[in-house]
Amino acid sequence: MELWQVVLLSVVEGLTEFVPVSSTGHLILLSRLLGLKGPAVDAFLVVVQLGALLAAVVYYRKTIGETIVGIVQKRPAALLLFRNLILGSLPLLAVGYLLGKRIKAQLFAPLPVALALGVGGLLMLLIERHRRRHAATFESASALPPKQALTVGLCHLFALWPGTSRSLASMSGALIAGLPTKAAADYAFLLAIPTLGTATVYELLKERHTLLAEVGLFHMSVGLAVSFAVGWLVIAAFLRYLRGHGLGLLALYRVVLAAVVLWLRRF
Questions:
Q1: pTM value?
Q2: What number is the average pLDDT over the span 250-263?
Q3: Are 78 and 70 a contacting pair, CB within 8 Å?
Q4: CA 94 → CA 83, 160, 198, distances in Å?
Q5: DSSP labels for 174-237?
């Protein structure tokens, strides 16, 4: 991989990781457009997400710090948030560990990504309709009962299909569970820390020799730095966007992109 390709992929990762349009789906489509394929490329597409994840850690550092202190001091709100983060992430981690190789082999390709983008876009329209018709039941993720938190975790499973979007799956589950849009986004971003963190670190350790040999330490470092910087900017911008807008425009973008990819496959 050349440096400009690493930078381009990393910018796209930062732009799409926290927006419900699927960063993995975009990276797969872009890498194939650039003619990049192989184990090292697929590993890089996973590991580069670590930069965006670190951006989420920095952005939510106050919440994370207060939660850690609250857990040590056994504060109820912190313990409930910690419990709900476990319930929201455990199904994805367990199934991802069991089926990770099959998912890479079968779904890291343009056609599965396009199908997931299109279906996910239509799902977003239904979720947006649900959000407008039903008032939020809970104010924050820590207020969710175990059943609703587990519902988020089960919805989160759909993120294993590249093109679906981890943030879409977790945000949809949170909205269905009864959270308002801003709180659902916060919960989805916090869920990225255990889920995305485990996946990226595992992939980095497993494929470290391949990545060092075919991508290189310098290129990897640049990619992580770029995805961190862009991701940090996007988190703040997306949360501001959600205060005055729904998910309709992003749903339309997903459907149009899916149609374009399916149309291009004809040639």
A1: 0.87
A2: 92
A3: yes
A4: 16, 11, 11
A5: HHHHT--HHHHHHHHHHHHHHHHHHHHHHHHHHTHHHHHHHT-HHHHHHHHHHHHHHHHHHHHH
